[in-house]
UniProtKB/TrEMBL annotation:
Domain of life assignment: Bacteria
Family listed: Belongs to the flavin oxidoreductase frp family.
Name of the protein in its database record: Nitroreductase family protein
InterPro entries, per the entry: Flavin_OxRdtase_Frp, Nitroreductase, Nitroreductase-like
Gene3D superfamilies cross-referenced by the UniProt entry: NADH Oxidase
Length: 250
């Protein structure tokens, strides 16, 4: 079974290197407005975007995300979780408080996340590529300061868009036996076999890929991914400084 959307998803690759071809304002607007049709929790549209054009700020974001191309290539957005707008609209103390608590904090991060994935797909449908940059939160406070973010906003992702300069190989994904359970959380008999199979697929992908080939296994890769946690331990405190999660400490 296939159609244009399935084919698009099947061809997804994150792009991290972009050509000099500029992304027009009309294209950027199309990507954003189409992606805004993503589902949004309680219809609150609790996100906003900042396009970063200042070369000095882009350079600083390149340093924070450890990606030099962020400084110069393509167009760069920062996607924010944003309850600032809704707090202004709701305007009663009870509503204001509810918008800052965990439930709506999560709602704003969920909205920002779904919006971002929708931008990934629209971008690719137009022949462009993108990279989602969670690494913007390697230094959340610096991003807040650089972008002058008000209370009840937080950076969720950087999002860089451009015309792909390379064609990375497609990264494999786990099979259904590892991620789809029936009725309750019960790993099927084939679960371990699927993990072993995926480990082999992953190993072959990293061994043979044209750029950055290396020896890689699933368990080690999972452990290595946790390195970012150390950089982000202050995230809770920063979220609270931004006015979120007042119930912690109540
Ligand atoms: C929440 C999130 C954060 C990410 N952050 C980064 C990042 O900071 N830097 C980066 O180069 N890629 C980042 N990525 C891209 C992932 O590395 C990429 O999606 C993953 O390796 C799978 O590769 P693929 O998208 O090409 O299939 C992020 C992706 C997600 C979903």
């Amino acid at each position: 079974m296939s159609n244009a959307i399935i084919e698009l998803l099947n061809q997804h690759r994150t792009q991290r290197n972009f050509t000099d071809q500029s992304v027009s304002d009309a294209t950027l607007a199309q990507i954003i407005t189409s992606a805004q049709q993503a589902p949004t929790s309680q219809y609150l549209q609790a996100y906003s975007l900042i396009e970063v054009t200042n070369p000095h700020v882009r350079q600083q974001l390149a340093t924070i995300t450890t990606r030099s191309t962020v400084a110069t290539q393509g167009r760069l957005l920062v996607v924010l979780a944003d309850q600032q707008r809704n707090v202004q609209l709701a305007a009663t103390p009870a509503a204001k408080r509810a918008l800052t608590e965990l439930d709506r904090f999560m709602g704003s991060v969920e909205d920002a996340t779904l919006m971002t994935e929708a931008m990934v797909m629209v971008t690719e449908s137009l022949g462009l590529g993108s990279v989602v940059l969670g690494s913007i939160n390697n230094d959340t406070q610096a991003v807040i300061d650089l972008l002058q973010l008000p209370a009840l906003t937080l950076p969720v992702f950087g999002f860089q868009i451009g015309y792909p300069a390379t064609q990375p190989e497609k990264k494999p994904r786990l099979g259904l036996d590892a991620i789809l359970f029936k009725d309750h959380y019960a790993q099927p008999a084939s679960y371990q076999a699927e993990l072993t199979k995926f480990d082999q697929t992953l190993h072959a992908y990293y061994e043979h890929r044209s750029s950055g080939a290396r020896e890689e296994h699933l368990a080690e890769m999972t452990r290595a991914a946790l390195g970012t946690a150390a950089k982000r331990r202050d995230f809770l405190k920063i979220a609270q400084r931004q006015g979120f999660l007042p119930e912690i400490g109540d």
